[in-house]
Structures are given as structure tokens and as C-alpha cells.
Design goal:
- With 302 residues, the protein is an alpha/beta fold.
- The chain is built from twelve helices and ten strands.
- Strand 7 and strand 8 form a beta hairpin.
- The radius of gyration is 23 Å and the shape is elongated.
Length: 302
């Protein structure tokens, strides 16, 4: 099914007037309530605000996808609006918002909801689509612009729907200090180690850094009297430029593909007791990563 088939002219605005993200959301809710007057407007707006507090739904590239999974609606509703002048709001790339898609779904259709969000993300990722949407002068022209992208909604929820494409990674020849700096700078707890061909050859995490300082931690737990006289973290810091990522990473790497069903990927993560899985293409090169927390935040929590 094409993404455009989910859009109705009565739920699309080709010229949003609001000058803030909240104002645009309210403007789109006007379209929803005009079409479905029995819906609880205040309750739905509260659910949207709650979701925004958990995580900013601005996608970047001038797109935002405010959404809520709530039992205040019984079917999925999509309202899309285009702001010609742009809306200043906190965004990942500091660009103003020009396209806002409001997505409302009941809790019992998580799969279609996530697939639709994935389709909207695909719409935003192609830089050719923004000018087409901003050039539309009517709801019908907005829908035609979406139709012409050919973006479809798949039947099954796969890794592609929730994976991250911008991945922080390490090189095996980087130092322990370089890796620690990346953990801090990008606020990640682990990352894949990539060779010069772009293929994942290992994983390094905060656990590996700590274990580099305490290689015999199991013995220490059993008998703390064996604790070394020299502070192990001081010793590690003295050699942080000499120790390489390849010296402390794990080479036990499980990978998956974009077409792997989410259920299968989640089961493998539980079975292997891992938090992150690199996503590779048919050549074995990394194209993304799926994290255990994504399954919680995007599938379970929404």
C-alpha cells in the first residue's frame, strides 16, 4: 500500500499558519476534529504533549512527526501540514520545520503505526521531496507529491522500520582514549568496530573499557584482599593512548539485515544477551544499527 493512500485532502493543509510547533499541532488537530467531531480533542492533545516530553518528535531535514498511541481513537488518523515560511523549533539539525505530520493510532495497531512512521521517515530522508511539498498549493497537490515518491507501507514490521542509519562507530586502530571520548561526546554506551571496508568486525562498550582496568574482576569479587596495590584505573589512564580498540573489543559480532522481522531480531538479542546489532547489506557492509532500547521505546512504548 502506498503511503499517499493513507492521506485524505480534508486532513491536509498546504499552508500552515502557526508560528510554533504546538500551534501547528493544534492547527492539524482542527482538521482531525472537523472530520471526526466526537474525538476528545483535549485528551488527544495531552497524549501528544506527553509523547513530546519523552522525546522530541522533530526528525530533522525540516520534518516533524508528532504522534500518540491512545485509546481515544479507534482508527489511525494522519494529518499533514506544510509551512511555507518555516517554524522555528528545537530540531536535530537546527533547521526550521516545514512539514509536520500528525499521527494518531490506537494502541492495538502498533505494527501499522510503526510502518507508517517508517514511511514518513523515508519521505523526509529524500531531499528531493521537501521542495515538492513546499511547492504544492492545495491538499491534493501535497498528496500527489507524496504519491509520486512511490513510498509504500510494508505488511510486516522489520528491522528497517526502527533501525538507526547514522551510526557512531570505532576503528580498530583507535585508542582507548578515542573510544571513551566518543562514548561521552555522542552519549552512547557502545558502538560497532568497523574495518576499512565498512564491515563490522567487533563491538566495544563501556563494559569493555572498565574490564580493561579490571581484567581479573571475577577473582577480585571472590577475594577483595587480592585487590592490587596500584589503583587499576590510574594504571589504565597512563596507557590510554597506547591501548587500541582492537585490544579490548569483543569479536563476537551478530549482524542482521534490514528485512529481518523485528520479532526475530528481538529474540536473537535476548538469546545472545546483547544490546546492539549492526545491520548489514548483502555485501556485509554496515548500513545501520538496531538497539535493544529501540524495541522498548518504539515498539512497546511507541
Amino acid at each position: 500500500m502506498r503511503l499517499a493512500a493513507l492521506l485524505e485532502p480534508t486532513m491536509v493543509s498546504a499552508d500552515l499558519k502557526g508560528d510554533s510547533k504546538n500551534a501547528a499541532i493544534n492547527e492539524l488537530m482542527d482538521l482531525v476534529i472537523r472530520q471526526y467531531p466526537d474525538l476528545d480533542r483535549a485528551g488527544i492533545l495531552s497524549s501528544i504533549a506527553e509523547r513530546e516530553e519523552i522525546e522530541n518528535t522533530s526528525f530533522g531535514r525540516c520534518f516533524a512527526f508528532p504522534h500518540a498511541r491512545t485509546d481515544l481513537v479507534s482508527d489511525m488518523h494522519i494529518a499533514m501540514g506544510v509551512s511555507k515560511k518555516g517554524i522555528k523549533a528545537p530540531t536535530p539539525d537546527q533547521k526550521p520545520l516545514h512539514v509536520i505530520c500528525l499521527l494518531l493510532t490506537p494502541r492495538n495497531i502498533a505494527q501499522l503505526y510503526l510502518q507508517t512512521l517508517s514511511g514518513l521517515a523515508a519521505l523526509a530522508r529524500d531531499e528531493r521531496n521537501l521542495p515538492r511539498l513546499m511547492g504544492a498549493d492545495s491538499p491534493e497537490e501535497v498528496i500527489r507529491a507524496v504519491w509520486d515518491t512511490g513510498i509504500t507501507i510494508r505488511k510486516h514490521l522489520t528491522v528497517r522500520d526502527i533501525m538507526h542509519r547514522d551510526v557512531v562507530s570505532a576503528n580498530p586502530d583507535e585508542s582507548l582514549k578515542d573510544a571513551a571520548n566518543k562514548f561521552y561526546r555522542y552519549k552512547v554506551s557502545g558502538m560497532p568496530v568497523i574495518d576499512n571496508d565498512g564491515k563490522p568486525i567487533g563491538i566495544i562498550s563501556e563494559r569493555h573499557l572498565i574490564q580493561a582496568a579490571l581484567p581479573n574482576y571475577e577473582s577480585l569479587i571472590q577475594n577483595m584482599a587480592l585487590a592490587p596495590d596500584v589503583e587499576p584505573f590510574d594504571e589504565l589512564l597512563r596507557h590510554e593512548d597506547e591501548i587500541k580498540v582492537r585490544d579490548i573489543m569483543t569479536m563476537r559480532v551478530f549482524t542482521t539485515t534490514e528485512d529481518t522481522p523485528i520479532v526475530e531480531a528481538a529474540a536473537q538479542m535476548l538469546f545472545r544477551k546483547i544490546r546492539r546489532v549492526p545491520v548489514v547489506d548483502s555485501y556485509g557492509s554496515m548500513v545501520g544499527i538496531i538497539l535493544r532500547r529501540d524495541i522498548v521505546s518504539k515498539v512497546i512504548r511507541g
